[in-house]
Input
Amino acid sequence: MPRLILGHTTDTSAKIWVRASARWPVAFVQLINPANNKSLAEFPLITQESEFFTAVHEFTALAADTDYTVKVSFGKKRQDPADARVREAYTEGRFKTFPKTNNQPFTFLLGSCNLHSLGILERPDQSWTTISRVAAKNQARFMIHAGDQIYADIPLKPEASLEHYRDKYLDAWDDCIPAKKVLTELPHYMILDDHEIINNYENGHGGVGSTLPRIALKAYWEFQHSHNPVTLGTPDQYYYAFSYGNVQFFALDTRTSRISGLQQMIDDKQLKSLLAWMSQYKNNTKFIVTSVPFVGAVKNPEQDKWCDPAFQAQREKILEHILKNGISDVVFLTGDMHTSYCADMEISDSAGNKTVIHELMSSPINQFTPSLPLEFYYESPKTVTGKGLQYKSTIRKNTFYGAHSNVMSITVASGKPIEFNIFRTTEGSIKPALKGKV
Output
């Protein structure tokens, strides 16, 4: 059972996710100074069966760029002394708060598509062991999970039951001990894609009714979104923003308001939030997390990717905002396609304005798919004429990594190109399979 996940971290705070049990419903979350092993604070969390005994505590007033240890134990009552509590494996974690400014380079990890539901045919243990080693070697400060952290619909269509969805999280993160370990080793940021609900899900469509998505999203909240930053939308939306020093991140929710019949991938409120955020941080390095590719032009998008005609107008509104407002240093982060790459999009208009945005894809963490060439998945570069602008997407062939399970490290240093390394997760090596710069 996963008992501890390190969540959203800032220069002064950190969210700590725990899961207790019916027998031991009180989680004692203790913050410790690792330099002298002295306790700095302890907080008892009274968990509830209705939340599957999950809860989150946020420690505040922390020092910037400082190491901390967190330990979790469990008791029957909040008054239980230390010797009356129990402790399980992987209930101790270490994290470092973020800096106030980016005086030093930093590295984070990007991954998506964690297949876990095929038993011994495709166990994810080796993949997560590799991720742990990659994170340690590169001193990764956090990890972004870009969607499909579970596969609720593999191998069978999901049941409209909380037990089914909760069991999928336990299958992904408890049955796989190395995954449970990684969740305690660095902060984690997560956003959902379709397999957290059902394949190719969009709001109000797909013949699944309203009960199954509601149940799936409750489980998503319990295990994933509760330890993310506070959502920028309504309680039933999940997009959010955070920063590491002066480097900015915006995680899109591309599923819960997606309605292809209305030509929207995201609703107007989320779109306005995104555009305002880009303008606010016009000259900062900016990463936008999207669970489906934004820059890459996918063959047969089937109303599921940003390049599909159903979402063309909304995609072009984002591109136009970037171009017209001189917004620089935009990099999209994505997964979904079971390949990895670096892609560039050239944008221009008749007035002579030009810019380039980029996209990094890392997918899958663990999967069972054939290795096929770039041309099988993606369109050849071609110029698209939109409403008032032109744009062309190019996937760099020398960065394409087809259908091999992988994770990506991304290193940001002020005034220097962004560096990325792709590591194959299923071979046990932490030597990069591919590397490049943005």
